[in-house]
């Protein structure tokens, strides 16, 4: 299971930017080979963490799944309050919760497909905004009503997030606090504390390395990230999940050259084996932990 990935992610309005606009044929050409390779390696499930307003296209996901054999889990929710369009940014907690529940229990638009996870996130600036807090609270209510879990964009300001989830009565093992390993926020993230509170922790930016030809600003040295992960799983294996946060076909920006979801099979798992991690632990990380997390719990 690739627990935090993107079929195509872009900021709101990217579909109107002619500089970066792609035809459907171009998007298929970029995406299908990556998913087919993922499936050939043994990948079964790809969790698309692209929220409302950021390029989510469920009919496209259904087509890709049929072509590649990969089960794609779509999400409801938002990457962060700063990516929510004004209609949603002005909405109440009750309205947002109703929107999330509808997409989980009835379906996303007219696609006939239902969301399997809820996405929330911390806006730029490093602290949750009032809108972020409304979205987190709405997500907690929707998770309780439907049994689906929550993925977060960033695990900074976790104290505020955990307080909201506690007020709403949501068990923290239903929340995956993401991007604990990225080069910008790793030192600001209380990953072991989150695990001690009961939350799950996502090391899900594997592959964004300073060794890349053109590394992004959130890159981190490969060995540094791996060592961080090894220290964490030594103490909190049951709370750990890993992924690459790759973007199969970036929307409105060039993306990161040379980085795909298949880093999991081509680099991460070999690195774990080379570090002495046994097969049972690898299965725990990429099969058992995500399966438990994704299972609907009513």
UniProtKB/TrEMBL annotation:
<feature type="modified residue" description="N6-carboxylysine">
    <location>
        <position position="119"/>
    </location>
</feature>
<dbReference type="Pfam" id="PF02126">
    <property type="entry name" value="PTE"/>
</dbReference>
<dbReference type="GO" id="GO:0008270">
    <property type="term" value="F:zinc ion binding"/>
</dbReference>
<keyword id="KW-0479">Metal-binding</keyword>
<dbReference type="InterPro" id="IPR032466">
    <property type="entry name" value="Metal_Hydrolase"/>
</dbReference>
<feature type="binding site">
    <location>
        <position position="179"/>
    </location>
    <ligand>
        <name>Zn(2+) 2</name>
    </ligand>
</feature>
<feature type="binding site">
    <location>
        <position position="4"/>
    </location>
    <ligand>
        <name>Zn(2+) 1</name>
    </ligand>
</feature>
<dbReference type="GO" id="GO:0016787">
    <property type="term" value="F:hydrolase activity"/>
</dbReference>
<feature type="binding site" description="via carbamate group">
    <location>
        <position position="119"/>
    </location>
    <ligand>
        <name>Zn(2+) 1</name>
    </ligand>
</feature>
<feature type="binding site">
    <location>
        <position position="245"/>
    </location>
    <ligand>
        <name>Zn(2+) 1</name>
    </ligand>
</feature>
<comment type="similarity">
    <text>Belongs to the metallo-dependent hydrolases superfamily. Phosphotriesterase family.</text>
</comment>
<feature type="binding site">
    <location>
        <position position="6"/>
    </location>
    <ligand>
        <name>Zn(2+) 1</name>
    </ligand>
</feature>
<keyword id="KW-0378">Hydrolase</keyword>
<feature type="binding site" description="via carbamate group">
    <location>
        <position position="119"/>
    </location>
    <ligand>
        <name>Zn(2+) 2</name>
    </ligand>
</feature>
<protein>
    <submittedName>
        <fullName>Phosphotriesterase</fullName>
    </submittedName>
</protein>
<feature type="binding site">
    <location>
        <position position="153"/>
    </location>
    <ligand>
        <name>Zn(2+) 2</name>
    </ligand>
</feature>
<dbReference type="InterPro" id="IPR001559">
    <property type="entry name" value="Phosphotriesterase"/>
</dbReference>
């Amino acid at each position: 299971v690739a627990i935090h990935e993107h079929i195509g992610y872009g900021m709101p309005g990217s579909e109107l930017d002619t500089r970066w606009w792609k035809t459907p044929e171009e998007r298929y050409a970029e995406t299908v080979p990556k998913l087919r390779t993922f499936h050939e390696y043994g990948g079964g499930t790809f969790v698309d963490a692209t929220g409302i307003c950021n390029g989510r296209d469920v009919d496209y996901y259904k087509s890709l799944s049929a072509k590649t054999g990969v089960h794609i889990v779509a999400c409801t929710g938002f990457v962060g309050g700063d990516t929510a369009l004004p209609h949603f940014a002005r909405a109440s907690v009750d309205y947002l919760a109703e929107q999330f529940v509808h997409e989980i229990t009835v379906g996303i638009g007219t696609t006939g497909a239902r969301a399997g996870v809820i996405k929330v996130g911390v806006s730029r600036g490093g602290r949750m905004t009032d809108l972020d807090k409304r979205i987190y609270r709405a997500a907690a209510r929707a998770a309780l009503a439907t049994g689906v879990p929550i993925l977060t964009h960033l695990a900074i300001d976790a104290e505020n997030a955990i307080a909201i989830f506690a007020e709403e009565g949501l068990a923290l093992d239903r929340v995956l606090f993401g991007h604990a390993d990225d080069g910008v926020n790793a030192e600001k993230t209380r990953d072991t504390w989150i695990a001690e509170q009961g939350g799950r922790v996502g090391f899900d930016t594997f592959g964004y390395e300073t060794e890349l030809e053109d590394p992004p600003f959130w890159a981190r040295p490969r060995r540094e990230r791996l060592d961080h992960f090894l220290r964490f799983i030594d103490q909190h294996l049951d709370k750990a999940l890993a992924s690459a946060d790759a973007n199969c076909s970036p929307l409105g920006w060039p993306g990161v050259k040379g980085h795909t979801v298949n880093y999991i099979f081509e680099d991460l798992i070999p690195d774990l084996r080379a570090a002495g991690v046994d097969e049972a632990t690898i299965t725990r990380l990429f099969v058992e932990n995500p399966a438990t997390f994704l299972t609907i719990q009513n």
